[in-house]
């Protein structure tokens, strides 16, 4: 999983560099809509799905489908870590009295 996070730190900036110069106002509006849709989400699994949607919306203007597939795969593998993070967070909340 750590390898996937490291891979993302390399390929996602590449996707951004290719996407941002090509982004239309309509695409930027869609990114804002995605952000607004999920502002109140607290469930880690839903956050993970939202996060991928948001990232793919950022990269869509580049039209680099192979790169998007690689990013999606890395997100999916890393997503397996989220239940453990959620359990750890619940344990930390219980220990601090915020449960």
From TrEMBL:
Residues 3-87 form the GntR C-terminal domain. The keyword Transmembrane does not apply. SUPFAM superfamilies: GntR ligand-binding domain-like. Pfam families: FCD. Keywords: DNA-binding, Transcription, Transcription regulation. This is FCD domain-containing protein.
């Amino acid at each position: 999983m750590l390898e996937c996070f490291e891979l993302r730190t390399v390929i996602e900036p590449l996707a951004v560099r290719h996407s941002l110069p090509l982004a239309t106002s309509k695409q930027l509006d869609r990114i804002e809509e995605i952000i607004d849709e999920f502002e109140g989400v607290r469930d880690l699994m839903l956050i993970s799905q939202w996060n991928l949607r948001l990232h793919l919306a950022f990269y869509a203007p580049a039209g680099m489908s192979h790169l998007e597939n690689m990013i999606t795969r890395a997100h999916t593998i890393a997503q397996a870590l989220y239940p453990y993070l959620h359990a750890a967070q619940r344990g930390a909340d219980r220990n601090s009295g915020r449960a």
